[in-house]
């Protein structure tokens, strides 16, 4: 006999698989939605919704709308994160999925500037805000669910697997746009760009079906049994875990800045500044996402073996070292070289952080406030680095006509992350090796080794 608090090994295995599948599906939908908006901002929205601007400035205006969505992600992280700690992870993740998916689908029926004037970008902005609020707890919530279901000794590997949804979502989004590239340009600009947004309604149904079959995590259920649910999770995070919250936020800078700049600015840089066919960047992102399906679990497994903090710092160092060579390769204007550059930065250099982020952040907070602490810190970091980054990079390029200021900005984000993880809780280096302690917050500095 067993129950939800004392499951059999077979039940545990089933619950872990369901949590992972639900995390992958939800993350796929989230990043499908976001890659659509980011790609459309770089390639479509600058013309259809901001036609009065110079091409580079029009792209900056469209990417600003993308950034505004990122600025509302922290609101979703705080609100839905607190609800997740109060009423449960499962129900909150179902709600965020619907909010995010419907907002994306409605973008597909928006009028353009030529049809509605100033109301077109205003309506797009409102939907982008709702999309950002919903997404603010989606990936963080998936990381919490899997980390709380996972075996501590395999936490790095298992929490890396929902990241495969990020790769799948990007592959779906870029594949859709690559197929639409075969359409005549006038038809694509008239209605073709809308089709990927409308298709997101399919993902809502699939995602909800899977989400409702997931069991609440044993750690959360243990909190409810002992009546330890916090009355104000946000207040408790900053009252007793403020240091770890800031470590978590800064630890996200390099990963967020790099992934978002590659998905948006690099595409715009290649297509608008270097005048390469837009399919080059999209194909590079597709191949990089395909490779990421293998590098996510690889780096998660390495985190269990070598220590989460070590792999995380190593990945941030790799990003800083490769940024300038990446621009050198892209500036060759050779399609194969550009694709290789995108693969190396997106599927290899940054992926060590993406794969180990769930385990690292989850272990900075106790279960009673984990959803709030993880989702809010991650999304504030995302807004500051990932939201501002593409807009700032585009404006720097427009002002200087050089990639150097952009490269230095990206390197600075990596340096901030390295410093944050270096001074963070030392036991994060031993997740997997010191499994009994990983769920307790720590304040000891990370010692050099």
From TrEMBL:
It holds the Pfam family MFS_1. GO terms for molecular function: transmembrane transporter activity. It comes from the Bacteria. The keyword Lipid biosynthesis does not apply. The chain crosses the membrane at residues 20-45, 57-80, 92-110, 116-137, 157-179, 191-210, 245-274, 280-299, 311-330, 336-360, 380-400, 406-424. InterPro entries: MFS, MFS_dom, MFS_trans_sf. It is found in: Cell membrane. Keywords: Cell membrane, Membrane, Transmembrane, Transmembrane helix, Transport. The keyword DNA-binding does not apply. One of its GO terms (cellular component) is plasma membrane. Residues 19-429 form the Major facilitator superfamily (MFS) profile domain. It is a multi-pass membrane protein. This is Sugar phosphate permease.
């Amino acid at each position: 006999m067993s129950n939800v608090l004392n499951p059999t090994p077979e039940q545990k295995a089933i619950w872990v698989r369901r949590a992972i599948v639900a995390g992958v599906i939800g993350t796929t939908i989230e990043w499908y939605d976001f890659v659509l908006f980011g790609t459309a901002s770089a390639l479509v929205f600058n013309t259809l919704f901001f036609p009065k601007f110079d091409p580079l400035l029009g792209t900056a205006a469209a990417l600003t709308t993308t950034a505004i969505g990122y600025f509302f992600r922290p609101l979703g992280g705080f609100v839905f994160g607190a609800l997740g700690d109060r009423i449960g992870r499962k129900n909150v993740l179902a709600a965020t999925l619907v909010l995010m998916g419907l907002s994306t689908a409605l973008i597909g029926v928006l009028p353009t500037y030529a049809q509605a004037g100033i109301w077109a970008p205003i309506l797009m902005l409102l939907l982008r805000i709702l999309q950002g609020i919903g997404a603010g707890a989606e990936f963080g919530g998936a990381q919490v669910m899997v980390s709380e279901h996972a075996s501590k000794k395999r936490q790095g590997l298992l929490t890396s697997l929902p990241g495969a949804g990020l790769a799948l979502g990007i592959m779906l989004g870029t594949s859709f746009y690559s197929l639409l590239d075969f359409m005549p340009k006038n038809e694509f600009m008239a209605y073709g760009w809308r089709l990927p947004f409308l298709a997101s309604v399919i993902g809502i149904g699939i995602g909800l079906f899977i989400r409702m079959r997931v069991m609440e995590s044993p750690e959360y259920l243990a909190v409810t049994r002992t009546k330890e649910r916090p009355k104000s999770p946000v207040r408790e995070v900053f009252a007793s875990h403020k240091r770890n919250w800031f470590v978590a936020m800064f630890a996200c800078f390099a990963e967020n800045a790099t992934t978002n700049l590659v998905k948006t600015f690099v595409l715009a840089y290649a297509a608008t500044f270097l005048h390469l066919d837009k399919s080059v960047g999209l194909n590079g992102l597709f191949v990089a996402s395909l490779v990421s399906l293998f590098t996510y679990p690889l780096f998660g497994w390495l985190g269990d073996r070598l220590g989460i903090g070590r792999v995380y710092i190593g990945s941030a160092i790799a990003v800083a070292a490769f940024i300038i060579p990446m621009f050198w390769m892209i500036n060759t204007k050779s399609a194969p070289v550009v694709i290789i550059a995108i693969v190396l930065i997106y599927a290899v250099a940054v992926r060590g952080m993406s794969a180990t982020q769930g385990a690292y952040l989850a272990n900075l907070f106790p279960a009673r406030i984990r959803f709030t602490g993880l989702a809010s810190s991650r999304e504030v970091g995302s807004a500051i680095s990932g939201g501002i980054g593409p807009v700032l990079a585009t404006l720097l390029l427009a002002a200087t006509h050089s990639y150097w200021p952009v490269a230095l900005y990206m390197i600075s984000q990596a340096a901030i992350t390295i410093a944050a993880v270096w001074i963070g809780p030392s036991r994060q280096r031993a997740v997997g090796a010191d499994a009994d302690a990983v769920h307790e917050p720590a304040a000891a500095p990370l010692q050099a080794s």
